[in-house]
Every structure is written in C-alpha cells, then in structure tokens.
Design brief:
Elements: H1 8-41, H2 43-48, H3 56-66, H4 75-82, E1 88-91, E2 94-97, H5 106-121, H6 123-127
Antiparallel strand pairs: 1-2
C-alpha cells in the first residue's frame, strides 16, 4: 500500500538536492557577473553589444573567437568560417558561392542562430 506522504529519507534527499541546486544557481550568477565585467572591459566585446539581441555572453564569445581579426578580410569571411553563410570564391568578375561548411565553432553558431530567431520574433519593432 502506498503512503500519502514522502518518507523521511525522501524528504532528506530532496532537501539535499534542493541545496545543491541553490548553490549551482549562485555559481551561475557569479559566472554571469564575471562574464559581464569581462565584456565591459573589452572594446571589441562592447561593439558587439550594439547588435540587436546580442548580449554579453555572445559578444564575449565572438570577441574571443575573432581575436584581433587579422585572419579575416571581411565580416562575411568570419561568418563563412562559422558556417552561417556560404563560403565564397571570387575570381575576376565571377563569384562562386560554395556550400555552408559546419567547421567553425558550433556553440557560437548556435548562439547566433538563437539570436537571429529572437530578432525575427521582435522584427515588427525594428521594421515599423
């Protein structure tokens, strides 16, 4: 026959897990504050904050990934390296667009896609 109420052991285990979750929440908040401070100290990260729906986490990740940016001729080259836009090969007047490679940082690509979805949800605010 089942009891209506949890046993003492169940309550004790629940309380322990609840405390662990509270500790994890505190640690996440501390790390978020650290990332925010890091973002505000870096000029490159601050520039990315001007893009709609880009927050401190995405801005810091992109700034760290790009570095000084000398490895990319244009922003499109960086986007192609992430696999967000097709790779481009140009010769004279001819421009050939190749497939989208998935070789770049998967986590940054995912975060950018989520940001783009957020912009689409609020695009009426930007369009009108």
């Amino acid at each position: 026959m089942r009891k209506k109420y949890p046993s003492d052991l169940s309550r004790e285990l629940f309380a322990e897990h609840n405390e662990k979750l509270k500790d994890l929440d505190k640690e996440i908040k501390n790390q978020d504050h650290r990332i925010g401070r890091l973002c505000n100290q870096n000029q490159r990260s601050k520039r990315f904050l001007n893009v709609p729906d880009v927050g401190v986490i995405i801005a810091t990740m992109i700034a760290a990934d790009i570095g000084d940016g000398k490895g990319y001729v244009s922003s499109r080259d960086y986007a192609a390296s992430l696999g967000v836009v097709p790779k481009q090969q140009s010769s004279g007047d001819k421009q050939v667009y190749l497939g989208v490679s998935k070789r770049g940082n998967r986590y940054i690509r995912t975060m950018l896609i989520h940001g783009a979805r957020s912009v689409l949800k609020t695009c009426s605010f930007w369009v009108n």
